[in-house]
Amino acid sequence: VRTPRRARIWVTGDPSRQREAEIDRSEPETAVLVRRSVRIVNPRGLHARPCHALVSAALEFESRLSVNCAGREVDGKSILSLMTLSCPVGSELELIAEGSDAQALIERLSGLVNAGFGESD
Amino acid sequence: LTSQFWKHFKTKSCCIALKSNSKADVLGEIVGNLVAGGALPEELRAAALEALLERERLASTGVGMNVAIPHVKLAGLTRAVANLSVHREGVDWAAVDGDSVKVFFTVLRPDQASDEHDPETHLEMMRWIARLARKRDFRRFSTQAKTKKELVDLLKEMSSI
């Protein structure tokens, strides 16, 4: 018998809603859905190496991950899928994670994107 | 737009059964085939190999699903050069999913725009390659190809993907 999810919380980038996520973290079995929009800042956009960095990090988490760019949503744990998105510098990515470690996954990925994946050219 | 991308792959330089079994040797074999097939000038051989090895040191080009896309800029080129090669058994490539790599899309591109190289079109080609590589059928057929011509025909057949 499948255990029903006790809560399904949507957390946005809005800091006033972060508390909901913190409350949720105290209950590990609860599946959380976390969405956050981030902006691509590295000049070359989401090309192969940033896709690799994103997926390598995402694979360390058990939550499912989708990435939406300009209305197209793909599996965030597949480099090939991410490469089919056209995400130049300045474009907005929506990260959508679902699972017990969704919040941590989103924090980690936001950090990577905001740091331009360590790329300056 | 995507319908012409297969033309970047010269049949003679592609390979249906790579023999090497390490990153350095496989890349050396692919670059050697590009030179032998007339797709890459001999004088760019060393620089091409060094650029590909350097890229692997940055992060593996193994993108999962038994596919790698080694892809670098190379000064001295006037137009992009692409190669499709298959390793029947699979090579350890430190790929993101840990699986070995059987299908190699190697792409060398000029370091600046020219009449024969439009960076935007090039990005579109890379997305086309990613879409192709995601197709289970493409991976199955390419790893079973019996001739180089079959490999390039497959690219042509799936050119509008």
Question: Can you describe this structure?
Answer:
The complex is a heterodimer of chains A (121) and B (161). Chain A is built from four helices and five strands. Chain A is α+β, with helices and mostly antiparallel strands and 121 residues long. Chain A has a five-stranded mixed β-sheet with strand order 1-2-5-3-4. In chain A, α2 runs antiparallel to α4. The N and C termini of chain A lie far apart (52 Å). Chain B has 161 residues and is an alpha/beta fold. Chain B contains five helices and five strands. In chain B, strands 1, 2, 3, 4 and 5 form a five-stranded mixed β-sheet that branches. In chain B, α1 runs antiparallel to α2. The longest helix of chain B is centred in the last third of the chain and has 16 residues. The relative contact order of chain B is 0.21. Classes of the chains: A alpha+beta (121), B alpha/beta (161).
Annotation keywords:
heterodimer, A: 121 residues, five-stranded mixed beta sheet, 31% helix, globular, B: 161 residues, alpha/beta, 5 strands
Subunit organisation of the chains: heterodimer
Main interface by residue count: A-B, 16 and 19 residues
General form of chain B: globular
- Helix fraction of chain A by DSSP (H/I, runs of at least 4): 25-40%
Order of helices and strands of chain B: HHEEEEEHHH
Structural class of chain A: alpha+beta
Major sheet details of chain B = 5 strands, mixed
Kindly provide the radius of gyration of chain B, computed on alpha-carbon positions and rounded to a whole number of angstroms. Answer: 14 Å
Compact description:
Chain A is α+β, with helices and mostly antiparallel strands and 121 residues long. Chain A has helices spanning 18-25, 48-58, 79-83, 102-114; strands spanning 10-11, 32-39, 64-69, 72-75, 92-99.
Secondary structure blueprint with pairings:
The complex is a heterodimer of chains A (121) and B (161).
Chain A (H helix, E strand, L loop, with lengths): L9 E2 L6 H8 L6 E8 L8 H11 L5 E6 L2 E4 L3 H5 L8 E8 L2 H13 L7
Parallel strand pairs in A: 1-2
Antiparallel strand pairs in A: 2-5, 3-4, 3-5
Helix pairs in contact in A: 2-4
Chain B lengths: L22 H14 L8 H14 L3 E3 L2 E2 L2 E3 L7 E11 L9 E9 L9 H16 L1 H8 L4 H10 L4
Parallel strand pairs in B: 2-5, 3-5
Antiparallel strand pairs in B: 1-2, 4-5
Helix pairs in contact in B: 1-2
